[in-house]
Design goal:
The structure is a homodimer. Chain A is α/β, with parallel strands linked by helices. Chain A has 14 helices and eleven strands. In chain A, helix 4 links the parallel strand 5 and strand 6. The first copy, chain A, is globular. Chains A and B meet through helix 3, strand 7 and strand 8 of A and helix 3, strand 7 and strand 8 of B.
Chain lengths: 363, 363
């Protein structure tokens, strides 16, 4: 049996728990983490609300929480927009919050990023609790305090590092996740294996069929281990001064795909799966000892519905330079040293990056 | 001779300096505080730009800074608006910033709050440097990391605690400050004496005529001491969990005045001067030993051009409950125990607050 709790250790003795429990444990966990019973703000999207909002409200009401303000947003990446952020501000402030009012982010990565940024900036900071409902949120975006919204020039360009008081991860919620979202989340799980844990990467290969059919025991182990890897990396480098950047493996390519193809053409997981293939290709060019075939066979298991053959590699290259990870004009990339070990470099030529793109475009 | 530097000590060994020097010291101070020479963003307003922008750009250019992007905003409180924040985002991101690009906030309190919040949220945080040009910014708003913008429901409701890397305070800039702004800033100076340093409050009374005519030696001593008081209070309680709230003496009343009268009818300093009179009146009701006459005679020296007699005390009372300092439904007020000592209470009745308002309204 895997442990039911992972601690995210931060600088200066700060820490918060990721608790793997059913949603019904929320009231006692809020209490245990110093959040006083009172009113609260729930931010969610209409898809998630249809499945879980009433359950959550019942759980809170039954244990004496009152004045629950539910803020419902449209689902999807396009909600990470200043207008939707403003809507959260308006509704939360209209409800008469104070600095002790918690914000509960019930949803996937988009809701976590958006509600997290709203919590970071309302009254200069409200207590934040993540209730991640998607695989990507459970293993990745709810952990580590990155919050934010998009800007016309790129994803997540406006935001804050803002840590939650608590993450409550209900693994049962994954069973009702739409297939496309399930598969999208697997890209981040595979990424965690490739950058930090070769044994885990091998386990994923071995158990792939059970994972696809969501065997509860297998995915419990998988989600907890993937969350633990993320927590460990974040603990070492909360503000992404250095090591944390390895979590961006594949992402500089992925952000370019999402931007040029238009948000929504690919799921984030599909873009990351493609981005990792390109990054693995560049890695292999620089290190001929890298077992590129083994990596590729794992990455090829991640299903991607569309091709990027219609996209212009030069355009893709150009927008990579808008990414936050560009440092003083040099593009910073995360590459694999071996399976389970990643490194950061800014010594990659445009030609090498183009070769990465071309491996996705050429037959 | 007063010391030329005040350290703001924060939790966990963090600290930053307030340096009292001419603007020409900026390049060496940036270097000393770990900010690498490169491109930078300057946020200012059109009034301040006309006086100092070219000088600042020359100083930076001469020492090898390049790609200086100046973002000019309209002067005044109405710039603390989401649209102007968005304009900073657009111009800064359009200029191709990275996470090392410093944001220099050249201006008064509005520019400091707005540019500070932009710095806090661009790429999840850029290095921030305050170059305060007004008295209120030099003794108050540039110190302590409060940043933010206004919302239709109240001032500063959206924001972040975000500490600068450096505050460079050029006292010579105060000589060209418009008279109205000079007098507005004096309200915060007097506040610092009343809440934390009886000797300083007495000095202010004694030197009042020299202060009004901006005697350089007197105001040097005054600004440094007022900044030091602010830094000390912030050091004890960076995130306003408790003691820092004493800096809000008079401000809950002041925010209500600004809101009901309409922003701009009173300067912030005038509203604070009036708010302190109301708060002193409530303080005296609760503590008959308070030397109310002495306090009032100091507060009456702060010139206020308009009366609030046309405002409805019940309306003023109502909007006080929108303030961030409302905690779980109880209005929290800062009152004086004696001159130089303030305390926080949430045990004030509406009737007592109304008496505070009435002392401003009745003849």
């Amino acid at each position: 049996m895997s442990k039911a709790i992972v601690q995210v250790q931060l600088d200066h003795g700060r820490a918060y728990p990721i608790q793997f429990s059913g949603l019904q444990a929320l009231p006692s966990l809020l209490d245990a983490n110093g959040l006083r019973k009172g009113s609260c703000i729930i931010v969610t999207d209409t898809n998630v609300a249809a499945l879980y909002l009433e359950t959550l409200q019942d759980i809170l009401h039954e244990s004496g929480w009152r004045d629950l303000t539910a803020i419902l947003l449209p689902p999807g990446e396009s909600s990470k927009h200043p207008n939707l952020l403003q809507r959260i501000y308006d509704q939360a402030l209209g409800a008469g919050i104070d600095r002790q009012t918690p914000v509960l982010a019930l949803g996937g990565g988009v809701i976590g990023d958006l509600a997290g940024f709203a919590a970071a900036t309302l009254l200069r900071g409200l207590p934040l609790v993540h209730l991640p409902t998607s695989l990507i949120a459970q293993v990745d975006s709810s952990i580590g305090g990155k919050t934010g919204i998009n800007h016309a020039l790129g994803k997540n360009l406006i935001g804050a590092f803002y840590q939650p008081k608590l993450v409550l991860t209900d693994l049962d919620l994954l069973q009702s996740l739409p297939e496309l979202e399930w598969r999208s989340g697997l890209a981040e799980v595979v990424k965690h294996g490739l950058i930090a844990d070769a044994d885990f990467a091998e386990e994923l290969s071995t158990n792939w069929d059970s994972i696809l059919r969501r065997d509860p025991a297998i995915i419990r182990h998988m989600v907890i281990r993937a969350a633990e890897i993320k927590a460990d990396v974040v603990s070492e480098d909360e503000r992404e001064a250095s090591r944390r950047a390895i979590l961006n493996f594949g992402h500089t390519f992925a952000h370019a795909i999402e931007r040029i193809a238009g948000y929504g053409e690919f799921t984030h997981g599909e873009a990351v799966a493609l981005g990792m293939r390109a990054a693995a290709r560049v890695s292999a060019m620089l290190n001929p000892d890298l077992p590129h075939e083994i990596i590729n066979s794992l990455l090829q298991r991640l299903p991607v519905r569309n091709s990027i053959r219609h996209l212009d590699p030069k355009e893709l290259l150009r927008v990579m330079y808008y990414d936050k990870k560009v440092q003083s004009g040099n593009l910073r990339l995360i590459l694999l040293q071996e399976i389970g070990s990643a490194y950061i470099t800014n010594k990659i030529t445009e030609k090498q990056i183009l070769s990465g793109w071309n491996c996705l475009i050429e037959p």
